[in-house]
Amino acid sequence: MNDGIVIIPTYNEIENIESIIRAVFSLQKPFDILIVDDNSPDKTARKVIELQQEFQERLFLESREKKSGLGTAYVHGFKWAIAKGYAYIFEMDADFSHNPNDLEKLYDCCHFGKGDVAIGSRYVTGVNVVNWPLGRVLMSYFASVYVRMITGMKIQDATAGFMCYKKEVLEGINLDKIKFIGYAFQIEMKYRAYAKKYNIIEVPIIFTDRTKGQSKMSNSIIKEAVLGVITLRIRKFFNRL
Asked: Of the four listed, 81, 114, 125, 196, which is most buried by Cβ atoms within 10 Å?
């Protein structure tokens, strides 16, 4: 067992899953991987099971009965990783939009540096996004501006989904109180860590849009994020976060 585990939620990622697993396991710093699959019709989980024969004791799979949202997948994975005793728990997408090589930078920030939470940030040193249309870049960038205005957090990339948490942070946040299931989940996790006064550090990365498979973004996810930020701020104001 290694001290860090990378949680990768999947739904129909058969085109990416083997490559991303091999890429993580090829790193000099060893990480374990937990795939949380929402019963992908394309048999993503079956491919993971095949690979478990090669990567025994390093590759794990939690299969859920249906597609239940990004947030619930990560909360499921967080609880699993905490129970297993991992010291550093990571979030990462399966589609190579997050470069596996950057896992080591996030780990170093929390293990050797002062970070309780490390964010793989697209915007802390400018706009570091590749292959996104301008409209998508502007929406993402100004979403973080909006979050800063409402919450008071000084985080440049509030919607980032490439993260490292120390186990103590996830233990300190009541995971059963997490409300949001889409990309608002990413904002909520950061805000809860911020409210608990954990040290959050942004580590610059280059984000590259997926080349295989389909994005899970939808209008309902965007609406949840916009309204969710206001809800979080109100809850904190009344000490009900």
From this structure: 81
The count of other CB atoms within 10 Å of the CB of residue 39 is 13
Whole-number Å distance between alpha carbons of 191 and 197: 10
Question: pLDDT tens, 28-58?
Answer: 999 999 999 999 999 999 999 999 999 999 9
Q: Which of 183, 33, 164, 44 is nearest to 110 (CA)?
A: 164
pLDDT tens for each residue of 106-140:
999 999 999 999 999 999 988 888 877 787 777 87
Q: Rounded CA gap, 179 and 65, in Å? A: 20
Are 12 and 41 spatial neighbours (Cβ–Cβ below 8 Å)?
A: yes
CA–CA distance, 34 with 62 (Å, rounded to integer): 7
Q: Does 152 score more than 60 pLDDT?
A: yes
How many other CB atoms are found less than 10 A from the CB of residue 144? Answer: 20
Type of residue numbered 105: K
For the four alpha carbons of 234, 238, 239 and 241, in that order, the dihedral sign comes to negative
Q: What is the pLDDT of residue 218?
A: 47
With bands split at pLDDT 50, 70 and 90, how would you rate the model's confidence at 151? confident
**Beta carbons of 136 and 208 less than 8 angstroms apart:** no
Report the pLDDT value the prediction gives residue 148, as an integer from 0 to 100. 86
Helix then strand then coil, in percent of the chain rounded to 5, is: 45, 15, 40
Question: Contact, 158 vs 144, CB < 8 A?
Answer: yes
For 96, the token pair is 């190579």
Q: Residue 146 pLDDT > 50, yes or no?
A: yes
Q: Is 209 helix (H, G, I), strand (E, B) or coil?
A: coil
